[in-house]
Amino acid sequence: MKTDRKIQNLVLIALFAALTLIGTMIKIPLPTGAFIHFGNSVVLLAVLLIGYWQGALAGGIGFFIFDILNGFAAEAPYFLVESFVVGAAAYLAFTLFKQKPTRVSQIIVIGIFAGIAKFVMSVIKATVMGMIAGAQFKPAFFAALATMPATVINIFSTILIVSLVFFPLRRAMQLIFHNQPA
């Protein structure tokens, strides 16, 4: 039965990686060249539904594949790491509710933790990229902040989507996986 559990974990990681890839491919372009997507929502759901390591790995793989397939190969390793950092922030908040949130407000709090981590990681990345391009720290930092509207919109859309679908998905997964033969 231990092998069945390992196979189930691998299948769920692969499923959420594929869903992250698909969610990231559903893009709403912004005038800045950035885009809004649903990949972050899938990653947060993965962390909450299948666990920190599995969910963050699934999200990181999904983002990594997206980046490779869409001309962002240089950024692929960063998004793999970011999935684990944002996932850790979400999981930390998740543990505040003993991994059993019962209200939408608790999911919103978890989303805010994840959103703050995503925002900080995005600012750090954009600042470092600006400094690599030759800017001093202060101009690179303020230029990074100027690119954050798309990130903020992604954060809010992630919180909204996860708040709406977490409880129905958790219930569906409980029904599916608890009704399996032992």
From TrEMBL:
InterPro entries, per database record: ECF_substrate-spec-like
Keyword Transmembrane helix: yes
Alphabetically ordered keywords of this record: Membrane, Transmembrane, Transmembrane helix
Transmembrane segments: 12-30, 42-66, 78-97, 109-134, 140-167
Presence of keyword Secreted: no
Gene3D superfamilies: 1.10.1760.20
Name used for this protein in its record: ECF transporter S component
Organism: Enterococcus pseudoavium
Lineage: Bacteria, Bacillati, Bacillota, Bacilli, Lactobacillales
